[in-house]
Fold each of these.
Amino acid sequence: MVGKFLEDAISPVAREIGEGLADLVNLAFTPIQKLKYVRDQNLEDFKKKLETRVKEIPEEKLTEAPPEIVGPILEDVGKYYHNQEYLRMLFSSLISATMNLDKRAYVHPSYKAIIEQISSDEAKLLRYLFYHPYFKNWRYPLVGIKYIPGHIADEKKGTIIKKLKGGAISIHGTSKSIKEFDLGFTLTNYVALDAFYAHCEEPWKFPQYIENLTRLKILNVVIGKSLYHYEKEYGEIIQSEYIDSIIKNNFFAKNGKESFYVFPLNYYEITGYGLDFLHCCL
């Protein structure tokens, strides 16, 4: 329409107006054209990933994909999720699992909704937890932080405590057990280093990730119980700079007074439902 207008334009004024209109049209549609190009490239990447996963299935184990599961996934990937690489990866793995007789028994229609509700960092964390060579029982150390009013250090071996004074943190000990500090104020129950080990973009959001993955029944948190023979792993968390940063920035630290903190030992685990999900989608 714009081209014909320019061809038919006789006066210089009309030609100038027509060229201006053409510039506006190009300006308006260039981002759309770029988005379409990116979308096409992402969908091609998704197809290649899916083809690769399907080719890995032994021929005698290969079966048709159930349309009631695969259909909605393909539709949503094309419309909404094509620009998220981690989602394309998870969805391609799920589709290939539906076509693999060895994995099909683990597939559940709810997995699509689960994938749609996890972030890229949560996907990285789950991949790390699932493939970590050390934790074969799918259980992982988790430490809490409890603020204790008053002086509690007696310099005896036993429970590790930390003292914050004048912005400096020092490590002490007490003969008391964690259970004797019922009057303390719990700052958090969710401290671990796994999000750092998994190279998450925002590892400090680990408590949020745990809450969400627990809500989705992928993980389960056990408060008040610890894992046997994990003293080294618990110690690494308690003595980490990450836990020190949480202590220094809590509400009680801002008054500048001497404060003490103990560290209840907890753990979290991948649920049976979560293991089935990860077995299909990673």
Amino acid sequence: MFPVHDPDRGGAVVGFVGRTLAQGPDVPKYLNSPQTVLYSKSRLLYGLGAAPTRDALAAERCRCWSRGPLDAIAVTSATTTGGAACTWVGVAPSGTALTAGQVAALSGHAGPLVERGVVVAFDADPSGRHAAVRGYDLLRAASAWPAAAVLPDGRDPASLAQHDGPAALGRLLDAAAEIPLVDLVIEEHLASWAGRLHWAEGRTGALRDAAAIVAAIPPEQVARQVLRLADRLELDPATVTAAVLEQVSSSADRDMPAPRAVPHPARTPTEPVLPVELARADYPGPLRLYRATRTEADTDLVTRQPPTARLGTAAGLSTARGRHAPRASRTGR
């Protein structure tokens, strides 16, 4: 049984996590206390509220996010090689997948993640990799760029320390600082295209998928990922760079605020609408080419002639008709 401490309550024990010693088909690996008002699983981390962990984090030890209490204990017990940058402190979720509330708790009680960073060390199995990818999305939302501890297949931090010794786990954690977690995230995205990478269309789709991730990482990490993608997809680095730049441009366009709509003045019910206005894209707008009310002083909108010109034309037509009309008989016949 492992006690879970709440750092917001002075390190008081608010729940427990149990670990089975003999796994079976109907036996869970971990069993947690039920959710209560005090035991809020979505915001608590095992190891964060205990006094030794708080003291170690205050001393600016390196933080490692693991999957379970035994993994967190193994990380904290790992021995580092001489000259290592720091010693390690392990924390783990208690009964849930990684949540935004737990990320906020670690950043708030252990120093800003954006400044001090964190290493993610989850199991080397599909569920562990999925948890690591979810952790990347949550940590990136907190402006943190985590590193990844690449564990051997079938191992977690606890089993690695048990079989190979705490020093082996310490060496793996020390090397993790050079491996960004985004490496694993990109590999997981490429794995979804595995059956189509031998076709050009599949490689193009995989590149577009991965380029969207690369476009969001810090600039100093982009060149490394471009070379990795070019090698992985057998593409020219210039092609990969162009795909990343296209994603950066698309992201900038999405982030650009929409133009403000300018309200148009209301049209009076009695004012007629001209066909030329209906043809305009911004109808009904304040700009009009011609006035809609026809008066004697206005230009005629049909013939583009003033009213006097129309009268003159009408008079000329009448005169012409008068010349060709038959003369009336003088005798009245």
Amino acid sequence: MAHDRQLAPTTYLKLGRSHMNSKAKTKSQPSTKAPVPVSADPPAPAQVQKPTNERRLHDLVRLVVDTADAKGWDAEAVAQDLKNFKYATIAVSRMAPNTTQEVTGTFEVTCDERVKIAYHQTSFHSWGLSDLYDAIGNEFWRLPWIQKKTENPGDNTARSLSDVALLERLLRRFHRSVRQLKHRHADRPSLVVRDEYDVQDLLHAILRGLFDDIRSEEYTPSYAGGASRMDFLLKSEQIVIETKVASASLRDKQVGEQLMIDIQRYQSHPDCKRLLCFVYDPGGEIKNPAGLETDLTRVHDKLEVKVIVVSP
């Protein structure tokens, strides 16, 4: 299915037409300037102008749409911030291989002080969405105006942003790890993940291979008269991971209420700048995982919150 990918007219296109007009005028009028002496210093090279937000958003949307198209997805920009050029939403869809099931999702582009691309599953099945997200990430650094920051010893901003992306990828694939534990050599007993403690133990083991200072079960500041323990604090990265396991008694409403309380607690924690809320739903109890993610994934009073719901 062909889609019109034409975006809003961008500044650099306007500059192109202006340049052509000025060039035409130059040809029609003979030059009256005196020749430059041989001994004169060569002109300084023109400085490359920093692209406007309009141009940057245009490039990001084009990257997502083109990558999706190359991998066999139908993709279309369905919403764009035409005032400040900070946000855009791209809808993707395709039929799952060898089935009649359609897989759909949205990719949310943020083009502000930091550039971010996140995706949300909007269909029951999510086949191929995480792979498309990885492919977009591989193309991300091809944009000429994106530069990796050189970190100063006291500046962990660039590193923590890459850590968040790494953690999201790990959590999105958590069920693969759980499934793999069921298939062991020589018919050894399976390692079964049954409850929240099992989820925390497995996640803790994986995190140990990636981060040095992991503090589990630290107390959070008091909220509404009581204190609780956080699941994992990555001290150096200033990232907290909070885990939930959905069940028949812990569904959309209950999970959302608990996460709102957690968010309120972590807003006053001195070592928490980013909060990842991981909701593992092995039984498919969460009826609207995309809605739960979208409703709570945002900045809450300077605390960056991202909700990740994972089901088979």
Amino acid sequence: MIRITYHGCQTLGEGRFNGRFKLVLSFLRDLKEAIEAERYWEKYLASNDTVVARTFQGLFKNTVVCSECQYPSVTFEPFMYLAVPLPAAVVLQREVVYVSPPNPWDPLGRPAATAYLLQMTQADNVHHLKTELCRVLAEDGGGPAEVPSPDQLTAVEVAGHRVLHALEDW
């Protein structure tokens, strides 16, 4: 049994309808909403017709359903800004080479260089990179005296075996 209602919860008719009629009703309801939206948009542009409005503004469709009779009320509101959630930051692996101070037991006094892969996101900054490197160095077996603090480290960008510039903490 299908009940056809109109504004004000008035019953227009009841009866048994086949699937095609339900499809036609759904199409007509969508068409009616599209016509109402177009009419509202043209009315809005009559007083706000600018390049910005035509390019960056739109209509937001609100649907409220009556809890007693299940009648859906549809309204349209113009919007300029729409909150869109940003996707989660992608985790990237960055290769970081840690150059330790010279080993006092090495007769030539050469520093040791060790490469580490750090998990970073695009939102991470240089200070986070230094903190993460200190954490990895502590896990790698360096005692508390051997692991520097993030403030003791200097991050530099290297290309072609040359230091391009030091990176600031930001």
